[in-house]
Specification:
The protein has helices spanning 6-23, 54-68, 72-89, 103-113, 140-144, 149-160, 167-184, 189-205, 215-218, 222-225, 245-257, 262-270, 276-291, 300-305, 309-324. The chain is mostly helical.
């Protein structure tokens, strides 16, 4: 099976969490009304510096489930249990309180509380395409890495569908995980992006995604995934940073491709405005995987500033141990 190091798992989890915490003070603020340069506090949610939000909490729920089990069914069940523990008991939170939850995620958790199975709990209408599954999907890359394409795609679909089951959300998560996997394997970020474009388009046109997605579903992705399109050349004014999942996917990849280190990538994401924490968290997963920790990677001082950074490290160790036992 594909082997990843404990440090790689840590880099992805911290990549998400640091980006999230950088964005929390500025969430919902319009572009151009602020300029983030470091880890700050207070602001929108009146939280101390280093506070992460639901983005990291739900990411940790998935990673925690993976630290306990290394099979799809149990990962789904434990992730769902983790979501309930987070929402009802404030576990997996930075300071023992839930201060941010998306509408689609809240509806899905309500269904889980009513014992609806996780495979059926996520909303599947066109209005259920916030970025709530994309923001937490990164850890599953370590689980699906050695699986055939069709199985990878289906597992990502199932994990997304705990809260977001519409094909637009599912495809966003598939694209992100496929790109993330190439970065984890050490590919150049531009070469990895081009390879992802080709793979996704081949799968949509002639392969494993052909019968799942319709043209009206995939049209919004085309500027990003059409082979040969240089996404990093798009002007910033054309990058949207609200809560629509495709906008978050496009913005995060753009921030990653147009910068040369972790710090600049996540600060670029925060300074796009609007859904600052999620855009930076999703960007941070990519940049953490690619640059690691230290040097051009995640600044250690930002990790040390994170609330419960030891807990995040422990969960990463658990995921690594679980993967090693297979």
């Amino acid at each position: 099976m594909e082997k990843f190091t404990e440090k790689q798992i840590e880099s992805v989890l911290f990549g998400v969490a640091v980006g999230d915490a950088l964005g929390v003070p500025f969430e919902f603020r319009p572009r151009g009304t602020f300029h983030a340069v470091d880890m700050e506090g207070h602001g929108t949610h009146s939280q101390p510096p280093g506070t992460w939000s639901d983005d990291t909490s739900l990411t940790l729920c998935l990673a925690w489930a993976m630290s306990k089990h290394w099979d799809t069914e149990n990962i789904l069940k434990e992730t769902a249990r983790g979501f309930l523990r987070w929402r009802d008991d404030a576990e997996f939170t930075a300071h023992g309180a839930v201060f941010d939850v998306g509408n689609a995620t809240a509806r899905a958790i309500h269904k889980l509380r009513k014992r609806v199975p996780p495979k059926k709990s996520g909303g599947d209408t066109v209005n259920d395409n916030g970025n709530g599954s994309l923001m937490r999907i990164a850890p599953i890359a370590f689980f699906v890495a050695d699986k055939p394409q069709a199985e990878r795609f289906d597992i990502v679909r199932q994990v997304s569908s705990i809260t977001h089951a519409h094909p637009i959300s599912v495809l966003s998560c598939i694209i992100y995980v496929e790109y993330l996997l190439r970065l984890l394997k050490g590919d150049d970020k531009f070469a990895a992006f081009e390879a992802m474009q080709k793979e996704i388009m081949d799968a949509l046109m002639n392969g494993t995604l052909k019968n799942y997605f319709r043209n009206e579903i995939t049209d919004c992705f085309m500027p990003l995934i059409l082979p040969g399109n240089k996404w990093h050349t798009v002007d910033k004014s054309d990058i949207k940073s609200g809560g629509f999942v495709v906008d978050t996917l496009k913005a995060s990849i753009w921030c990653f491709l147009t910068t040369e280190n972790y710090r600049d990538a996540v600060l670029e994401a925060v300074n796009l405005g609007e859904d600052t924490d999620t855009t930076a968290a999703v960007t941070g997963g990519l940049a953490g995987a690619y640059y690691g920790i230290g040097n051009n990677g995640i600044p250690p001082k930002w990790i040390e500033a994170l609330a419960k950074h030891e807990t995040i490290s422990d969960i990463a160790k658990g995921v690594f141990a679980s993967s090693e036992n297979q």
